[in-house]
# Entry
Amino acid sequence: MFSRRNKKESGPASPAITNASAAPIRRSVQKSSPSIIASDVVASGNIISEGLIQIDGTFDGSVRAAIISIGETATVKGMMVADEISVRGQMTGEIFARRVQLYNQAIFEGEITHSELGIELGARFEGRLHNTNEPQEKASWGGEAPSQSVGGPTLSKPVFVQPQLAPLEVAPIEVAPIEVAMRDQDVAAE
# Structure
């Protein structure tokens, strides 16, 4: 059932080991799992991450991360600061990023400060563009310039996120009365 293979018979090494020319993954994104604001979430506040932030819900506030992805179902209002930002949903506010991509279904209103910008046919943009070599340095984060380190974005003091939940609207449930009919046999047995 089980047998050992000789080292000569074993197959080739895995491609991950033998392919030394593969592009390295960013260390800052690799450290943690992506943080996701799901499509049914309504949140506001300030978010700091050294990794990927995926916004699919409604968010009002500021985000600083290595990579920010605004999904098709997202409605975002605020300031986004990152190395890379992609927008597929709706956003109003400011973007400060080295690389910005507005996809064909994106609706953006505000200002974009960037080094590289891509706008697909069909995307809607209304606002101002500023091209610079250091876009993240232009962002004003709480009245002070954001600090940038080798490992990713950092702040001098902690930031706490307090999501604001929208009240659920629950429709009343009508329960029909249940009628139980007993057979003559069951009544006689008692």
